[in-house]
Amino acid sequence: MAKKAATKKEFSVEDKLRALHQLQVVDSEIDKIRTVRGELPLEVQDLEDEIEGLDLRIGKMEEEIKTLDTDVSDRKNANKDAETAIAKYKEQQNNVRNNREFESISKEIEFQELEIKLNEKRTKEGKIKISNKKEILDEAKERRSFRAEDLKSKKAELDEIVAETQAQEEKLEKKSKSALKKLDDRLSAAYTRLRTSAHNGLSVVPVDRDSCGGCFNKIPPQRKLDIQAKKKVIACEHCGRILVPSQETED
């Protein structure tokens, strides 16, 4: 680490300013390449997220339908058992010895008949729920299928653009890292911070017609002379961008 820091100190202010300008030029080229991709990476991510959400919804819906199907089946079986019980109770009524036994069995039959009616009602309600959920499920599956096709198309488009620009981007990224090595940690951090906060990604701008090339505010004559002298790193008093002489753009 100490050796690396010492190497960085060997660069003059003029070297650092040149490195800053080169770094900005290279990073701006990288930005242009990524701009070509436009919103595609975000669109692909959004589609992947939506499909993931649809998969979860479809899975949950299928599980709910399965549960409802099981409940309907169980109620049908329960009704068969109730009908069997009623037949048994009616047979027992033929052999009762008194009214008390007859009434007791009659209540059991009544209870089973009520259970049958309740099960029939719940079965009907369950079938309606199943029908509604299947309709929603079909819509979700159709949407998922449509989104999957859209994702496939967007991915193919993005992959094609990446394939065309990847080599150039990797080459520029190497240049960017090389230029960054000429800067000390403080200057590197300042460049990165400015680049992140600037809407156009410009951390380093030339003096253009006595004005900052970033915010276009006027630069005092003495400050302009200091910038041209390249003896120290000077930032714009208004936007904070690092200023370099206009001729740097011709180097």
Q: What does the secondary structure layout of this molecule look like, with pairings?
A:
Layout: H1 2-9, H2 13-36, H3 40-93, H4 99-180, H5 185-197, E1 204-208, E2 211-212, H6 221-229, E3 234-235, E4 242-244
Parallel strand pairs: 1-4
Antiparallel strand pairs: 1-2, 3-4
Helix pairs in contact: 2-4, 3-4
- The N- to C-terminal Cα distance equals 32 Å
Give the H and E element order.
HHHHHEEHEE
Helix content: over 70%
Number of separate helices: 6
In short:
The protein has 251 residues and is mostly helical.
Tell me what you see in this structure.
With 251 residues, the protein is mainly alpha-helical. The protein has 6 helices and 4 strands. Strands 2-1-4-3 form a 4-stranded mixed beta sheet. The longest helix has 82 residues, at 99-180. The chain is rod-shaped and about 125 Å long. Residues 1-8 have low confidence and may be disordered.
